[in-house]
């Protein structure tokens, strides 16, 4: 991330206008119980051709259960859900946890396909995976890039989404305002985004992908005491041969410095007006998020036209599903069993 630059724009806008949606509701602040980090691996992986990708994914739970698709972010991997997936499966959900494009064992099917990381592509990947698996409707849940993918899919294909959980609220990028500066105290947290705009940054990511990821984990989750085993388990997903190209394209495209894939031109146009999300939603903020402070959710409330609950999770940082899996799983179940 920080995929939060767009949310900050919403915060500023709401502060100026004082407008909040009547669809907004805020829940009590849950407390995160102490727990030991899981050393489990999400295995075995399955593979399926889905759109432009051959997607590697983990599946758990009954095949006929309500579907929850859990979407990870950058620079993380499917193990953000290592403790969420079994909780949902134990409650009867069919849980699908895919590696995003450029991560883990997911591969592009055609060597000629542009290695784009743009938001339209991430959302389209979710729908392509659902089509390939024969899934008509699912709860989509994600953080960081995965949260953006969930927002795009929910906004553009609401008939395929029975509910949505995201960390940091509405994450569809306002590309028209990409060059509008924000408060310097927030700009400094985006150092990596600016670094990736130049070829030195591309070379740095290629040479030091693990070191950069570890710095971001520490900065974004200052209260999360993850160990080397936990980090290494996820960092191995960044050895994907397309990782650097997809990440660099994502951060350059969001600033208008890289062209998008023509295949997604129609979807890009539909995202320009920042379409609202009409499906039932639960949005979560960690109160120890090192990218930006937790909010009360009102700044983005107008972007949710359906039932929406916003919740602040005590002690959680930016990788909220892995740091507070009980809270994240509970949010998904609120939508599975409303």
The H-and-E topology, N to C, reads as HEEEEHEEHEHEHHHHHHHEEHH
Q: Major β-sheet, in short?
A: 10 strands, mixed
The tally of helices reads 13
CATH H-tier superfamily: Alpha/Beta hydrolase fold, catalytic domain
Give a description of the structure:
Strands 1, 2, 3, 4, 5, 6, 7, 8, 9 and 10 form a ten-stranded mixed beta sheet that branches. The protein is α/β, with parallel strands linked by helices. It is 35% helix and 15% strand. The longest helix is centred in the middle third of the chain and has 15 residues, at 119-133. The protein has a single domain (5-336), classed as 3-Layer(aba) Sandwich (Rossmann fold), CATH 3.40.50.
Summary?
With 338 residues, the protein is an alpha/beta fold.
Q: Which SSEs are present, and which pair or pack?
A:
Layout: H1 5-17, E1 24-26, E2 46-50, E3 53-60, E4 67-71, H2 84-90, E5 94-98, E6 107-108, H3 119-133, E7 138-142, H4 145-156, E8 161-167, H5 184-187, H6 191-195, H7 199-207, H8 209-220, H9 228-235, H10 243-253, H11 265-271, E9 281-286, E10 308-313, H12 320-323, H13 325-336
Parallel strand pairs: 1-10, 4-5, 4-7, 7-8, 8-9, 9-10
Antiparallel strand pairs: 2-3, 3-5, 3-6
Helix pairs in contact: 2-13, 3-4, 3-11
Task: Fill in the keyword field for this structure.
13 helices; disordered N terminus; 10-stranded mixed sheet; 338 residues; Rossmann fold; alpha/beta
């Amino acid at each position: 991330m920080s995929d939060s630059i767009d949310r900050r724009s919403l915060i500023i806008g709401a502060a100026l206008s004082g407008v909040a949606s009547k669809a907004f509701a805020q829940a009590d602040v849950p407390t995160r119980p102490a727990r030991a980090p899981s050393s489990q691996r999400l295995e075995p992986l399955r593979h399926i051709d889905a759109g432009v990708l051959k997607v590697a994914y983990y599946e758990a739970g009954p095949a006929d259960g309500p579907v929850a698709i859990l979407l990870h972010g950058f620079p993380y991997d499917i193990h953000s859900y290592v403790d969420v997936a079994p909780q949902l499966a134990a409650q009867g959900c069919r849980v699908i946890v895919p590696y995003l494009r450029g991560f883990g064992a997911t591969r592009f099917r055609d060597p000629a396909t542009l290695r784009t990381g743009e938001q339209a592509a991430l959302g389209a990947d979710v729908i392509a995976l659902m089509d390939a698996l024969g899934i008509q409707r699912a709860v989509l849940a994600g953080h960081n890039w995965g949260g953006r993918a969930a927002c795009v899919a929910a906004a553009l294909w609401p008939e395929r989404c029975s509910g949505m959980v995201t960390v940091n609220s509405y994450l569809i990028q306002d590309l028209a305002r990409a060059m509008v500066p924000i408060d310097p105290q927030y700009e400094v947290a985006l150092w990596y985004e600016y670094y990736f705009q130049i070829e030195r940054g591309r070379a740095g990511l290629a040479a030091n992908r693990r070191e950069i990821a570890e710095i971001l984990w520490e900065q974004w989750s200052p209260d999360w005491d993850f160990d080397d085993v936990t980090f290494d388990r996820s960092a191995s997903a960044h050895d994907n041969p397309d990782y650097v190209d997809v990440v660099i394209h994502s951060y350059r495209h969001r600033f208008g410095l890289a062209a998008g894939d023509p295949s997604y031109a129609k979807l890009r146009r539909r995202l320009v007006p920042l379409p609202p999300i009409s499906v039932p939603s639960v949005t979560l903020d960690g109160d120890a998020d090192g990218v930006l402070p937790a909010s009360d959710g009102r700044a983005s409330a107008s972007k949710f036209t359906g039932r929406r609950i916003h919740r602040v999770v005590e002690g959680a940082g930016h990788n909220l599903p892995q740091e507070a899996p009980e809270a994240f799983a509970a949010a998904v179940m609120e939508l599975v069993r409303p």
